[in-house]
Write a structure and sequence with these properties.
- This protein is of the alpha+beta class and 237 residues long.
- A six-stranded mixed beta sheet has the order 7-4-9-2-1-10.
- It has two domains: 2-115, Jelly Rolls; 129-230, Arc Repressor Mutant, subunit A (Orthogonal Bundle).
- It has nine helices and ten strands.
- The two termini are 14 Å apart.
Length: 237
């Protein structure tokens, strides 16, 4: 697994996972064989690649022994461009169609992430200044424990309701799910640096390891232990 600013990239076996959603744009590519993805309407599609937009429920009922899984920050230029390539964000067939477009430009032995222009900034310049300030403030606060909207709103000089509206309008996600995604990202960073799951959970502001496990299953469809088993991490800053 490779962690870049705004990017988490994994190469290896892609295992089956239950219905889940995450605040990132996901790219799945099989090196050999095909996998099966399904949407919340119950439609299943067999494919070699898929692009799944952020915050969309999905499951993988059949994996592959070798493939690539890339998570891109939904607010990054790359994430936005990929999301726009999916004609119907909630539909599994549209994910597969967008995946086919990626495969068309990919060599037989080429990893998709190798050609990715990694983005280092996930904050767009046209956003409301208070929202930009909140996005920069949140990573500093998640380690301390609970993060409340009213506290963050007060810190950036905005009403709670207005800041909540900006998150929904400009991020496309409510405040609490966004904070939950930041905690997951922070915990994975800590595991990549060699910390135990328990220590990673505490550093990311989860109540305990069990809390981390519950959120991980809801986010990725897999427990932390299953998610990282057999992985080798490479952290690039």
């Amino acid at each position: 697994m490779t962690i870049q600013p705004g990017v988490l990239s994994y190469r290896g076996g892609l295992t089956a996972a239950g219905m889940h959603a995450h605040h990132s744009v996901q790219v799945l590519v099989a090196r050999r064989g095909e996998f099966v993805v399904s949407d919340t309407a119950g439609a299943e599609v067999t494919c070699r690649a898929a692009v799944i937009p952020a915050d969309v429920g999905h499951a993988m009922s059949q994996g592959v022994v070798e493939g690539e899984m890339v998570h891109l920050a939904a607010e990054s230029d790359d994430g936005i461009a990929l999301s726009r390539s999916v004609v119907r964000p909630e539909a599994a067939q549209a994910w597969a169609d967008a995946g086919d477009a990626l495969l068309a430009g990919l060599g037989e032995n080429q990893w998709w992430a190798d050609g990715l222009p990694y983005v280092t900034s996930t904050v767009q310049p046209m956003r409301h200044p208070a929202l930009v300030a909140a996005l920069r403030l949140l990573p500093e606060r998640i380690e301390a424990g609970p993060v409340r909207l009213r506290d963050v709103a007060g810190a950036v000089g905005m009403s709670e309701s207005r800041l909540a509206h900006l998150f929904a309008q400009e991020i496309g996600l409510a405040f609490r799910p966004y904070v939950r995604w930041l905690r997951m990202s922070r915990a994975i960073d800590q595991v990549a640096l060699g910390h135990t799951l328990t220590d990673a959970a505490h550093t990311a502001g989860f109540f305990d390891g069990a809390h981390f496990t519950r959120v991980c299953i809801k986010t990725f469809g897999l427990s932390p232990a299953v998610l990282i088993s057999g992985m080798t991490f490479v952290v690039n800053s």
